[in-house]
Specification:
Blueprint: H1 4-21, E1 27-38, E2 48-64, E3 69-74, E4 85-88, H2 102-113, E5 121-127, H3 137-152, H4 159-174, H5 181-188, E6 193-198, E7 204-208, E8 216-222, H6 233-248, H7 261-266, H8 271-295, H9 302-317, H10 322-333, E9 338-342, E10 349-355, H11 359-372, E11 379-382, E12 390-391
Parallel strand pairs: 3-5
Antiparallel strand pairs: 1-2, 1-12, 2-5, 2-6, 3-4, 6-7, 8-10, 8-11, 9-10
Helix pairs in contact: 2-3, 2-4, 3-4, 3-5, 4-5, 6-8, 8-9, 10-11
């Protein structure tokens, strides 16, 4: 079943597909962006995360082809970039570039590399997930493409299976060494829930999460500082975490128990690696604390855990930026229960947990703080836990 919003989006994208390609699409699919409540830079360490899907989606109208031709078009692409991007499925090569089209093209490459007979497609995409905001716009593009091709070619892949292939597309084709959280969130989140995900074995649990029922609101604050994870800083953090695991004699930092953290840190000589390890192990523990609080119905108590997580990301992992720090400080000073940066950092977005009655004042305080420093007005909107990837028609 799809709601009125889904139906309208499906018709709009299908109509544009007809204009572009002269035929009716075989179907229309949607996949959401995500915001991560807690658990950052833990996914590539086999750790734990708690993302939720946003109402913002990538929507794709797609038709199957049998001649090996791929045609991609995006409603959001710069017209100067040339309109429809035409590629040959057999010639796809990792690292070949292609801008935004590398994400759906990478999915085709990953599916074919895994032995799935994808023989071409016509695709028109339209997205409402803000790009560069740390809300997984790229994962939404990948997952919606993977879901459409899975259905059209009868591949029989599960949501987690699609997520893993979409992650491979981003890692090996696009060249961003991300973990699997973003793709799993887009593929597998459920409306009204936050997804507790063990990234080692993809065990997952849908945890009910309804801030409004507790008189609360979760806000997303897009700082409008654009980030790009392909610039090396993300890869450097990953390499540092892997170095820490090697020094501690474990496969990944997931294997370091929180109660043994002090002893583990004492064994590390490199101060940068030591800080990275401290963040990852403590953030895994914050995920466990957050899930326990949600299970107990104490949603308000999650706020301080978020703020604690931000301090760790800012001071140990050093992936925040002045604008993200400003969101957290201004929101908390205005009465928010807690806040933290979310996503890869170096810009992007923060999440703020606040009482519903204080939400407008908190948002205004953040906007005023940005204005006082001569910064662009941030984009602020409620994070409503929404449905994962789905077929619309």
């Amino acid at each position: 079943m799809t709601g009125a919003g889904d139906a309208a989006a499906a018709e709009e994208v299908a109509a544009r597909f007809r204009e572009l390609y002269g035929t009716e699409p075989d179907g229309v699919w949607a996949a959401p962006g995500r915001v991560n409540l807690i658990g950052e830079y833990t996914d590539f360490n086999d750790g734990f995360v708690m993302p939720l899907a946003l109402p913002h989606t990538a929507v794709a109208a797609v038709s199957r082809r049998t001649d090996g031709v791929l045609r991609f078009h995006s409603a959001e692409a710069d017209p100067a970039s040339g309109g429809v991007v035409r590629l040959d499925a057999a010639d796809l090569t990792p690292g070949q570039g292609g801008g935004w089209a590398a994400y759906p093209a990478g999915v085709v490459w990953a599916l074919r590399a895994a032995g799935h007979a994808v023989t071409g497609a016509d695709v028109h995409l339209s997205a409402t997930v803000p790009t560069g905001a740390g809300l997984s716009s790229s994962a939404a593009l990948e997952v919606v493409t993977a879901l459409a091709l899975n259905d059209l070619f009868g591949l029989g892949l599960s949501g987690p299976g699609l997520a893993v292939l979409a992650q491979r597309a981003e890692n090996d084709f696009v060249g961003v060494p991300c973990g699997v959280m973003d793709q799993m969130a887009s593929a597998c989140c459920a409306e009204g829930h936050v997804l507790h995900l063990d990234t080692r074995d993809l065990t997952r649990r849908q945890v009910p999460f309804d801030p409004a029922a507790h008189g609360l609101r979760l806000l997303v604050v897009d700082t409008r500082v654009r980030h790009a994870l392909g610039d090396g800083a993300y890869a450097e953090r990953r390499a540092g975490c892997e170095a820490g695991a090697r020094a501690l004699g474990v496969r990944t930092l997931r294997e370091v128990p929180h109660e043994e953290l002090a002893g583990a840190l004492a064994r590390l000589d490199d101060p940068t690696v030591r800080a990275y390890v401290r963040h990852v192990v403590s953030d895994n523990h914050r995920v466990a604390r957050t899930m326990a609080l949600l299970d107990a119905g104490d949603v308000r108590a999650v706020g301080p855990v978020l703020t604690e997580g931000h301090a760790s990301l800012r001071d140990d992992l050093r992936v925040s930026c002045p604008e993200l720090d400003l969101v957290v400080s201004a929101a908390c000073a205005a009465g928010a229960l807690g806040a933290r940066m979310t996503g890869g950092g170096f810009g992007g977005s923060a999440v703020v947990l606040t009482g519903a009655d204080a939400a407008d004042a908190v948002a205004a305080a953040v906007e005023e703080a940005f204005a006082a420093r001569g910064l662009r007005t941030p984009r602020i909107f409620p994070a409503v836990p929404s449905a994962g990837a789905r077929r619309l028609r």
